[in-house]
Amino acid sequence: MLLERIYDEDLAQASYLIGCQATGEAVVVDPRRDVQVYLDIAGANGMRIVAVTETHIHADFLSGTRELAAATGATVYVSDEGGPDWAYGAGFEGANRITHGHEIRLGNISLEARHTPGHTPEHLSFLVTDGAQSPEPGFILTGDFVFVGDIGRPDLLDEAAGYENTRFQGARDLFASLSDRFLTLPDFVQVLPGHGSGSACGKALGAVPTSTVGYERRFSWWGPYVEAGDEAGFIAELLNGQPDAHAYFARMKRQNREGPALLGVTPELVEYDATELAQLLARDETIFVDTRHHSDVHESTVPRSLHVPGIAKSASYGAWVLDPESEARPLVLLAPDHAAAAEYRDHLVRVGIDTVRGFITGVEGLPQAPVPRVSPTALEKLPHALLLDLRNKNEFADGHLPGAHQLSGGRALWHLDELPETGTIVSYCRSGVRNAVAASALRRAGYDVVELEGSYLGWIAEPGHTPVVPDAERIAREQKLAPLVAASA
Protein backbone atom coordinates (compact mmCIF):
# COMPACT_ATOMS: atom_id res chain seq x y z
CA MET A 1 0.00 0.00 0.00
CA LEU A 2 1.10 3.53 -0.78
CA LEU A 3 -0.10 6.20 1.67
CA GLU A 4 0.95 9.81 1.16
CA ARG A 5 -0.06 12.75 3.36
CA ILE A 6 -0.20 16.06 1.47
CA TYR A 7 -0.15 18.91 3.95
CA ASP A 8 -0.94 22.55 3.29
CA GLU A 9 0.87 24.61 5.96
CA ASP A 10 -1.08 27.71 4.95
CA LEU A 11 -4.51 26.35 5.92
CA ALA A 12 -3.19 23.56 8.19
CA GLN A 13 -5.08 21.07 6.01
CA ALA A 14 -4.19 17.47 5.20
CA SER A 15 -5.29 15.37 2.25
CA TYR A 16 -4.30 11.80 1.53
CA LEU A 17 -3.42 9.70 -1.50
CA ILE A 18 -3.81 5.96 -0.92
CA GLY A 19 -2.86 3.44 -3.59
CA CYS A 20 -2.75 -0.27 -4.23
CA GLN A 21 0.64 -1.05 -5.71
CA ALA A 22 -0.62 -4.38 -7.04
CA THR A 23 -3.18 -2.78 -9.35
CA GLY A 24 -1.71 0.72 -9.75
CA GLU A 25 -4.96 2.37 -8.59
CA ALA A 26 -5.22 5.25 -6.14
CA VAL A 27 -7.85 7.23 -4.26
CA VAL A 28 -7.48 10.79 -2.97
CA VAL A 29 -9.32 11.95 0.15
CA ASP A 30 -10.06 15.64 0.84
CA PRO A 31 -8.05 17.12 -2.04
CA ARG A 32 -7.33 20.81 -2.32
CA ARG A 33 -8.16 22.71 -5.49
CA ASP A 34 -4.69 23.05 -7.03
CA VAL A 35 -4.48 19.38 -7.90
CA GLN A 36 -1.13 19.02 -9.66
CA VAL A 37 0.49 17.67 -6.49
CA TYR A 38 -1.75 14.57 -6.61
CA LEU A 39 -1.08 14.00 -10.30
CA ASP A 40 2.66 14.24 -9.63
CA ILE A 41 2.60 11.74 -6.75
CA ALA A 42 0.48 9.29 -8.72
CA GLY A 43 2.70 9.63 -11.77
CA ALA A 44 5.90 9.17 -9.77
CA ASN A 45 4.51 5.91 -8.39
CA GLY A 46 3.07 4.58 -11.62
CA MET A 47 -0.51 4.90 -10.42
CA ARG A 48 -3.82 6.11 -11.78
CA ILE A 49 -6.19 8.13 -9.60
CA VAL A 50 -9.46 6.26 -10.06
CA ALA A 51 -11.44 7.55 -7.07
CA VAL A 52 -11.75 10.78 -5.13
CA THR A 53 -13.78 11.45 -2.01
CA GLU A 54 -14.10 13.79 0.94
CA THR A 55 -15.01 13.44 4.57
CA HIS A 56 -17.57 16.25 4.69
CA ILE A 57 -18.64 19.61 3.28
CA HIS A 58 -15.64 21.68 4.24
CA ALA A 59 -15.75 25.23 5.61
CA ASP A 60 -12.10 26.27 5.71
CA PHE A 61 -10.96 25.56 2.15
CA LEU A 62 -12.50 25.04 -1.27
CA SER A 63 -12.59 21.36 -2.13
CA GLY A 64 -10.66 19.99 -5.10
CA THR A 65 -12.82 16.87 -5.47
CA ARG A 66 -14.54 18.02 -8.66
CA GLU A 67 -11.30 19.50 -10.02
CA LEU A 68 -9.36 16.27 -9.56
CA ALA A 69 -12.15 14.14 -10.99
CA ALA A 70 -12.29 16.37 -14.07
CA ALA A 71 -8.52 16.06 -14.52
CA THR A 72 -8.38 12.28 -14.13
CA GLY A 73 -11.81 10.84 -14.88
CA ALA A 74 -11.91 9.46 -11.33
CA THR A 75 -15.17 8.34 -9.77
CA VAL A 76 -16.48 10.76 -7.10
CA TYR A 77 -17.85 9.54 -3.77
CA VAL A 78 -19.62 11.95 -1.38
CA SER A 79 -21.63 11.53 1.80
CA ASP A 80 -25.35 10.84 1.65
CA GLU A 81 -25.72 11.02 5.42
CA GLY A 82 -27.16 13.87 7.50
CA GLY A 83 -30.53 14.19 5.79
CA PRO A 84 -31.71 16.33 2.85
CA ASP A 85 -30.44 19.59 4.37
CA TRP A 86 -26.89 18.24 4.05
CA ALA A 87 -27.09 16.66 0.61
CA TYR A 88 -24.47 17.68 -1.92
CA GLY A 89 -25.87 19.87 -4.69
CA ALA A 90 -26.08 20.06 -8.46
CA GLY A 91 -22.33 20.22 -8.99
CA PHE A 92 -22.10 16.63 -7.79
CA GLU A 93 -24.63 15.17 -10.21
CA GLY A 94 -23.41 11.70 -11.12
CA ALA A 95 -21.35 11.26 -7.94
CA ASN A 96 -21.77 8.11 -5.89
CA ARG A 97 -23.57 9.12 -2.71
CA ILE A 98 -22.44 6.84 0.06
CA THR A 99 -23.59 6.02 3.56
CA HIS A 100 -22.25 4.25 6.66
CA GLY A 101 -20.66 0.93 5.78
CA HIS A 102 -20.01 1.64 2.09
CA GLU A 103 -16.64 0.35 0.84
CA ILE A 104 -14.44 1.93 -1.79
CA ARG A 105 -12.21 -0.89 -3.07
CA LEU A 106 -8.94 -0.56 -4.99
CA GLY A 107 -7.25 -3.91 -5.44
CA ASN A 108 -6.12 -4.99 -1.98
CA ILE A 109 -7.14 -1.69 -0.38
CA SER A 110 -10.54 -0.88 1.05
CA LEU A 111 -11.88 2.35 2.54
CA GLU A 112 -14.96 1.76 4.68
CA ALA A 113 -17.16 4.81 5.30
CA ARG A 114 -18.22 5.37 8.90
CA HIS A 115 -20.80 8.03 9.68
CA THR A 116 -19.25 10.21 12.41
CA PRO A 117 -21.51 13.26 12.82
CA GLY A 118 -20.89 16.11 15.21
CA HIS A 119 -18.59 18.53 13.43
CA THR A 120 -21.19 18.39 10.64
CA PRO A 121 -24.25 16.14 10.27
CA GLU A 122 -23.02 14.41 7.09
CA HIS A 123 -19.44 13.77 8.24
CA LEU A 124 -17.77 10.49 7.26
CA SER A 125 -14.54 8.92 8.45
CA PHE A 126 -12.81 6.19 6.46
CA LEU A 127 -11.38 2.97 7.90
CA VAL A 128 -8.46 1.87 5.71
CA THR A 129 -7.54 -1.81 5.38
CA ASP A 130 -4.57 -3.15 3.43
CA GLY A 131 -5.82 -6.64 2.65
CA ALA A 132 -2.37 -7.75 1.53
CA GLN A 133 -1.13 -7.28 5.10
CA SER A 134 -4.12 -7.86 7.39
CA PRO A 135 -7.87 -8.36 7.35
CA GLU A 136 -8.17 -5.69 10.04
CA PRO A 137 -8.12 -1.93 9.43
CA GLY A 138 -4.86 -0.22 10.27
CA PHE A 139 -5.81 3.43 9.72
CA ILE A 140 -8.74 5.77 10.06
CA LEU A 141 -9.01 9.00 8.08
CA THR A 142 -10.91 11.16 10.54
CA GLY A 143 -11.31 14.41 8.60
CA ASP A 144 -12.59 17.02 11.06
CA PHE A 145 -13.87 14.44 13.56
CA VAL A 146 -10.79 13.53 15.61
CA PHE A 147 -7.56 15.52 15.55
CA VAL A 148 -4.35 14.89 17.44
CA GLY A 149 -5.27 15.90 20.99
CA ASP A 150 -8.58 17.48 20.04
CA ILE A 151 -11.84 17.00 18.14
CA GLY A 152 -13.69 19.04 15.54
CA ARG A 153 -15.70 21.96 16.77
CA PRO A 154 -19.49 21.56 16.55
CA ASP A 155 -20.27 25.27 16.45
CA LEU A 156 -19.18 26.17 12.92
CA LEU A 157 -22.68 25.76 11.53
CA ASP A 158 -23.79 28.47 13.97
CA GLU A 159 -20.70 30.63 13.47
CA ALA A 160 -20.26 30.31 9.73
CA ALA A 161 -23.44 28.97 8.14
CA GLY A 162 -26.12 31.04 9.88
CA TYR A 163 -27.69 28.29 11.96
CA GLU A 164 -28.80 28.81 15.56
CA ASN A 165 -27.75 26.64 18.51
CA THR A 166 -26.90 23.59 16.39
CA ARG A 167 -23.71 23.41 18.47
CA PHE A 168 -25.50 21.55 21.25
CA GLN A 169 -26.85 18.78 19.04
CA GLY A 170 -23.49 18.69 17.29
CA ALA A 171 -21.70 18.26 20.61
CA ARG A 172 -24.04 15.43 21.58
CA ASP A 173 -23.45 13.80 18.20
CA LEU A 174 -19.70 14.07 18.70
CA PHE A 175 -19.98 12.41 22.08
CA ALA A 176 -21.94 9.52 20.52
CA SER A 177 -19.56 9.24 17.56
CA LEU A 178 -16.58 9.03 19.88
CA SER A 179 -18.30 6.46 22.08
CA ASP A 180 -19.78 4.25 19.38
CA ARG A 181 -17.62 4.72 16.30
CA PHE A 182 -14.13 5.67 17.51
CA LEU A 183 -13.32 4.20 20.91
CA THR A 184 -14.74 0.86 19.81
CA LEU A 185 -11.79 0.52 17.41
CA PRO A 186 -8.59 -1.31 18.41
CA ASP A 187 -6.00 0.92 20.08
CA PHE A 188 -3.44 0.22 17.35
CA VAL A 189 -5.48 1.90 14.59
CA GLN A 190 -3.57 4.96 13.37
CA VAL A 191 -5.46 8.24 13.25
CA LEU A 192 -4.88 10.39 10.16
CA PRO A 193 -6.70 13.71 10.73
CA GLY A 194 -7.72 16.38 8.26
CA HIS A 195 -6.06 19.27 10.09
CA GLY A 196 -3.11 20.13 12.27
CA SER A 197 -2.04 22.90 14.59
CA GLY A 198 -3.15 26.34 13.42
CA SER A 199 -6.51 25.30 12.00
CA ALA A 200 -9.61 27.13 13.20
CA CYS A 201 -11.60 23.88 13.01
CA GLY A 202 -10.68 23.12 16.64
CA LYS A 203 -9.23 24.96 19.62
CA ALA A 204 -6.18 22.90 20.64
CA LEU A 205 -4.97 20.83 17.71
CA GLY A 206 -1.61 19.12 18.12
CA ALA A 207 1.32 19.74 15.81
CA VAL A 208 2.11 16.01 15.51
CA PRO A 209 0.73 14.72 12.18
CA THR A 210 -0.72 11.39 13.36
CA SER A 211 -1.95 9.60 16.45
CA THR A 212 -3.60 6.31 17.40
CA VAL A 213 -6.97 5.42 18.86
CA GLY A 214 -5.23 4.24 22.03
CA TYR A 215 -3.22 7.42 22.44
CA GLU A 216 -6.30 9.62 22.05
CA ARG A 217 -8.25 7.40 24.43
CA ARG A 218 -5.60 7.85 27.11
CA PHE A 219 -4.21 11.35 26.61
CA SER A 220 -6.79 13.54 24.87
CA TRP A 221 -8.73 16.07 26.95
CA TRP A 222 -12.03 14.43 25.94
CA GLY A 223 -11.11 10.81 26.68
CA PRO A 224 -11.97 10.86 30.40
CA TYR A 225 -15.36 12.47 29.76
CA VAL A 226 -16.35 9.88 27.16
CA GLU A 227 -14.99 6.91 29.10
CA ALA A 228 -16.96 8.07 32.16
CA GLY A 229 -20.14 8.74 30.17
CA ASP A 230 -20.07 12.40 31.29
CA GLU A 231 -21.88 13.99 28.34
CA ALA A 232 -22.72 17.26 30.12
CA GLY A 233 -19.12 17.82 31.22
CA PHE A 234 -17.90 16.96 27.73
CA ILE A 235 -20.27 19.46 26.08
CA ALA A 236 -19.39 22.29 28.46
CA GLU A 237 -15.66 21.78 27.99
CA LEU A 238 -15.96 21.38 24.22
CA LEU A 239 -17.97 24.54 23.65
CA ASN A 240 -16.05 26.79 26.01
CA GLY A 241 -13.28 28.88 24.46
CA GLN A 242 -13.69 27.99 20.80
CA PRO A 243 -11.92 30.59 18.61
CA ASP A 244 -13.70 32.97 16.25
CA ALA A 245 -14.66 31.44 12.91
CA HIS A 246 -13.41 33.33 9.88
CA ALA A 247 -16.19 34.93 7.85
CA TYR A 248 -15.09 33.28 4.61
CA PHE A 249 -16.08 29.90 6.10
CA ALA A 250 -19.71 30.65 5.21
CA ARG A 251 -18.80 31.05 1.54
CA MET A 252 -16.69 27.88 1.56
CA LYS A 253 -19.49 25.86 3.14
CA ARG A 254 -21.99 27.07 0.54
CA GLN A 255 -19.71 26.62 -2.48
CA ASN A 256 -18.46 23.23 -1.36
CA ARG A 257 -22.00 21.97 -0.96
CA GLU A 258 -23.11 23.11 -4.40
CA GLY A 259 -19.83 22.22 -6.13
CA PRO A 260 -16.85 24.55 -6.60
CA ALA A 261 -16.30 26.05 -10.03
CA LEU A 262 -13.80 24.15 -12.15
CA LEU A 263 -10.51 25.91 -12.83
CA GLY A 264 -9.36 23.83 -15.78
CA VAL A 265 -6.28 25.18 -17.52
CA THR A 266 -5.32 28.47 -15.87
CA PRO A 267 -4.25 31.37 -18.12
CA GLU A 268 -0.62 32.47 -18.22
CA LEU A 269 0.22 35.18 -15.70
CA VAL A 270 1.11 38.59 -17.13
CA GLU A 271 4.18 40.47 -15.91
CA TYR A 272 3.31 44.18 -15.70
CA ASP A 273 5.60 47.16 -15.78
CA ALA A 274 5.04 50.14 -13.50
CA THR A 275 3.63 52.44 -16.19
CA GLU A 276 1.03 49.94 -17.38
CA LEU A 277 -0.03 48.96 -13.86
CA ALA A 278 -0.24 52.59 -12.69
CA GLN A 279 -2.67 53.30 -15.52
CA LEU A 280 -4.84 50.31 -14.56
CA LEU A 281 -4.85 51.43 -10.95
CA ALA A 282 -5.74 54.99 -11.89
CA ARG A 283 -8.77 53.66 -13.80
CA ASP A 284 -9.62 51.37 -10.85
CA GLU A 285 -9.51 48.37 -13.16
CA THR A 286 -7.33 46.18 -10.97
CA ILE A 287 -6.39 45.60 -7.32
CA PHE A 288 -2.78 45.60 -6.22
CA VAL A 289 -1.73 43.09 -3.57
CA ASP A 290 1.36 44.12 -1.60
CA THR A 291 3.07 40.98 -0.33
CA ARG A 292 6.01 42.50 1.56
CA HIS A 293 6.59 42.45 5.31
CA HIS A 294 4.26 44.85 7.09
CA SER A 295 7.18 47.02 8.22
CA ASP A 296 8.02 47.76 4.58
CA VAL A 297 4.37 48.33 3.72
CA HIS A 298 4.08 50.81 6.59
CA GLU A 299 6.86 52.93 5.12
CA SER A 300 5.14 53.20 1.75
CA THR A 301 2.60 51.24 -0.30
CA VAL A 302 0.17 51.73 -3.17
CA PRO A 303 -2.99 53.52 -1.95
CA ARG A 304 -6.03 51.22 -1.62
CA SER A 305 -3.86 48.15 -2.05
CA LEU A 306 -4.48 44.97 -0.09
CA HIS A 307 -1.81 43.53 2.16
CA VAL A 308 -1.13 39.78 2.10
CA PRO A 309 2.29 39.25 3.69
CA GLY A 310 4.20 36.44 2.01
CA ILE A 311 3.28 33.17 0.34
CA ALA A 312 3.18 31.09 3.53
CA LYS A 313 -0.22 32.35 4.74
CA SER A 314 -1.51 33.91 1.54
CA ALA A 315 -4.68 31.78 1.37
CA SER A 316 -5.50 32.48 5.00
CA TYR A 317 -4.96 36.22 4.78
CA GLY A 318 -6.24 36.53 1.22
CA ALA A 319 -9.63 35.29 2.42
CA TRP A 320 -9.60 38.02 5.09
CA VAL A 321 -9.19 40.91 2.66
CA LEU A 322 -11.16 39.91 -0.42
CA ASP A 323 -14.66 38.58 -1.00
CA PRO A 324 -14.60 37.17 -4.56
CA GLU A 325 -18.38 37.06 -4.65
CA SER A 326 -18.59 40.85 -4.43
CA GLU A 327 -15.27 41.86 -6.02
CA ALA A 328 -14.53 40.75 -9.59
CA ARG A 329 -11.62 43.04 -10.47
CA PRO A 330 -8.44 41.13 -11.31
CA LEU A 331 -5.53 41.00 -8.87
CA VAL A 332 -1.94 41.95 -9.59
CA LEU A 333 0.55 40.62 -7.06
CA LEU A 334 3.92 41.87 -5.96
CA ALA A 335 6.16 38.86 -6.58
CA PRO A 336 9.87 38.39 -7.36
CA ASP A 337 9.24 36.22 -10.42
CA HIS A 338 6.71 34.18 -12.35
CA ALA A 339 7.20 31.05 -10.23
CA ALA A 340 6.46 32.89 -6.99
CA ALA A 341 3.40 34.56 -8.52
CA ALA A 342 2.10 31.16 -9.65
CA GLU A 343 2.60 29.81 -6.13
CA TYR A 344 0.63 32.73 -4.71
CA ARG A 345 -2.14 31.97 -7.19
CA ASP A 346 -2.20 28.31 -6.18
CA HIS A 347 -2.69 29.30 -2.55
CA LEU A 348 -5.44 31.79 -3.31
CA VAL A 349 -7.53 29.39 -5.40
CA ARG A 350 -7.69 27.14 -2.31
CA VAL A 351 -10.09 29.71 -0.84
CA GLY A 352 -11.90 30.50 -4.09
CA ILE A 353 -9.95 33.61 -5.12
CA ASP A 354 -9.54 32.90 -8.83
CA THR A 355 -8.84 36.38 -10.22
CA VAL A 356 -5.03 36.60 -10.08
CA ARG A 357 -4.05 37.80 -13.54
CA GLY A 358 -0.49 39.00 -13.17
CA PHE A 359 2.42 40.28 -11.13
CA ILE A 360 4.99 43.02 -10.87
CA THR A 361 8.45 42.57 -9.39
CA GLY A 362 8.75 45.92 -7.57
CA VAL A 363 6.81 48.97 -6.45
CA GLU A 364 9.16 51.55 -7.97
CA GLY A 365 7.27 53.83 -10.33
CA LEU A 366 3.89 53.12 -8.76
CA PRO A 367 1.95 55.74 -6.75
CA GLN A 368 2.79 55.28 -3.07
CA ALA A 369 2.02 56.72 0.35
CA PRO A 370 2.91 55.77 3.93
CA VAL A 371 0.40 53.85 6.03
CA PRO A 372 -1.11 56.05 8.79
CA ARG A 373 0.13 54.97 12.23
CA VAL A 374 0.09 56.21 15.79
CA SER A 375 2.52 55.40 18.59
CA PRO A 376 1.25 54.04 21.92
CA THR A 377 2.33 57.23 23.66
CA ALA A 378 0.51 59.44 21.14
CA LEU A 379 -2.71 57.45 21.28
CA GLU A 380 -4.21 59.91 23.77
CA LYS A 381 -4.14 62.53 21.03
CA LEU A 382 -6.95 60.60 19.31
CA PRO A 383 -9.50 60.54 22.16
CA HIS A 384 -12.52 60.14 19.91
CA ALA A 385 -11.14 57.32 17.76
CA LEU A 386 -12.65 53.84 17.94
CA LEU A 387 -10.12 51.37 19.33
CA LEU A 388 -10.52 48.20 17.25
CA ASP A 389 -9.02 44.97 18.59
CA LEU A 390 -8.55 42.61 15.62
CA ARG A 391 -7.48 39.62 17.70
CA ASN A 392 -9.83 36.74 18.41
CA LYS A 393 -12.29 36.83 21.29
CA ASN A 394 -10.17 34.57 23.52
CA GLU A 395 -7.16 36.87 23.20
CA PHE A 396 -9.39 39.84 23.88
CA ALA A 397 -10.74 38.19 27.04
CA ASP A 398 -7.19 37.70 28.30
CA GLY A 399 -6.52 41.45 28.16
CA HIS A 400 -7.17 44.44 25.92
CA LEU A 401 -6.83 48.20 25.69
CA PRO A 402 -9.39 50.12 27.76
CA GLY A 403 -12.48 50.88 25.71
CA ALA A 404 -11.53 48.63 22.79
CA HIS A 405 -14.09 46.92 20.57
CA GLN A 406 -13.26 43.35 19.49
CA LEU A 407 -13.78 42.20 15.90
CA SER A 408 -11.37 39.53 14.72
CA GLY A 409 -9.42 40.22 11.54
CA GLY A 410 -11.00 37.35 9.64
CA ARG A 411 -14.47 38.79 10.23
CA ALA A 412 -13.89 42.55 9.97
CA LEU A 413 -14.70 43.06 6.29
CA TRP A 414 -18.00 41.19 6.72
CA HIS A 415 -19.14 43.05 9.83
CA LEU A 416 -18.81 46.67 8.79
CA ASP A 417 -22.07 47.39 10.58
CA GLU A 418 -20.06 47.24 13.82
CA LEU A 419 -17.86 50.14 12.68
CA PRO A 420 -18.66 53.88 12.58
CA GLU A 421 -19.37 55.31 9.14
CA THR A 422 -17.26 58.39 9.94
CA GLY A 423 -14.35 59.15 12.20
CA THR A 424 -11.00 57.53 12.86
CA ILE A 425 -10.41 53.89 13.79
CA VAL A 426 -7.22 52.90 15.60
CA SER A 427 -6.64 49.20 15.04
CA TYR A 428 -4.31 46.69 16.64
CA CYS A 429 -3.66 42.96 16.99
CA ARG A 430 -0.98 41.24 19.06
CA SER A 431 2.20 42.15 17.17
CA GLY A 432 1.02 43.97 14.05
CA VAL A 433 0.79 41.32 11.30
CA ARG A 434 -2.95 40.62 11.43
CA ASN A 435 -3.60 44.30 12.02
CA ALA A 436 -1.77 45.30 8.84
CA VAL A 437 -3.74 42.75 6.82
CA ALA A 438 -7.22 43.60 8.08
CA ALA A 439 -6.55 47.35 8.19
CA SER A 440 -5.64 47.31 4.48
CA ALA A 441 -9.06 45.82 3.66
CA LEU A 442 -10.87 48.36 5.82
CA ARG A 443 -8.99 51.27 4.23
CA ARG A 444 -9.87 49.98 0.79
CA ALA A 445 -13.50 49.83 1.95
CA GLY A 446 -13.28 53.55 2.71
CA TYR A 447 -12.56 53.66 6.45
CA ASP A 448 -10.05 56.00 8.08
CA VAL A 449 -7.86 53.42 9.80
CA VAL A 450 -4.72 54.28 11.76
CA GLU A 451 -2.58 51.35 12.89
CA LEU A 452 -1.21 51.26 16.43
CA GLU A 453 2.57 50.93 16.26
CA GLY A 454 3.70 47.73 17.92
CA SER A 455 0.06 46.76 18.41
CA TYR A 456 -0.93 45.24 21.77
CA LEU A 457 2.59 44.15 22.71
CA GLY A 458 3.93 47.62 21.96
CA TRP A 459 1.20 49.25 24.02
CA ILE A 460 1.60 47.12 27.16
CA ALA A 461 5.37 47.61 27.03
CA GLU A 462 4.93 51.32 27.77
CA PRO A 463 5.14 52.33 31.46
CA GLY A 464 1.76 52.94 33.04
CA HIS A 465 -0.22 51.03 30.42
CA THR A 466 -2.42 48.48 32.15
CA PRO A 467 -4.67 46.28 30.03
CA VAL A 468 -8.23 45.43 30.95
CA VAL A 469 -8.29 41.76 32.01
CA PRO A 470 -11.99 40.99 32.18
CA ASP A 471 -12.07 37.88 34.34
CA ALA A 472 -15.65 38.83 35.12
CA GLU A 473 -16.48 38.70 31.41
CA ARG A 474 -15.01 35.23 31.08
CA ILE A 475 -16.85 33.97 34.15
CA ALA A 476 -20.10 35.44 32.88
CA ARG A 477 -19.61 33.74 29.53
CA GLU A 478 -19.03 30.38 31.17
CA GLN A 479 -22.03 30.86 33.48
CA LYS A 480 -24.18 31.77 30.49
CA LEU A 481 -23.07 28.61 28.69
CA ALA A 482 -23.99 26.24 31.51
CA PRO A 483 -27.80 26.70 31.45
CA LEU A 484 -27.80 26.60 27.65
CA VAL A 485 -26.13 23.23 27.77
CA ALA A 486 -28.62 22.01 30.35
CA ALA A 487 -31.61 23.35 28.43
CA SER A 488 -30.49 21.70 25.20
CA ALA A 489 -30.24 18.27 26.79
Q: Would you give an account of this structure?
A:
The structure is a single chain. The chain has 489 residues and is of the alpha/beta class. The protein has 3 domains: 2-258, Ribonuclease Z/Hydroxyacylglutathione hydrolase-like (Metallo-beta-lactamase, Chain A, 4-Layer Sandwich), CATH 3.60.15.10; 270-360, Oxidized Rhodanese, domain 1, CATH 3.40.250.10; 373-474, 3-Layer(aba) Sandwich (Oxidized Rhodanese, domain 1), CATH 3.40.250.10. The protein is built from 16 helices and 22 strands. The strands form 4 sheets. Strands 1-2-3-4-5-6 form a 6-stranded mixed sheet, covered by helices on one side. A 6-stranded mixed sheet has the order 7-8-9-10-11-12. Strand 1 (2-8) and strand 2 form a beta hairpin. It is globular and about 70 Å long. The chain starts with a strand and ends with a helix.
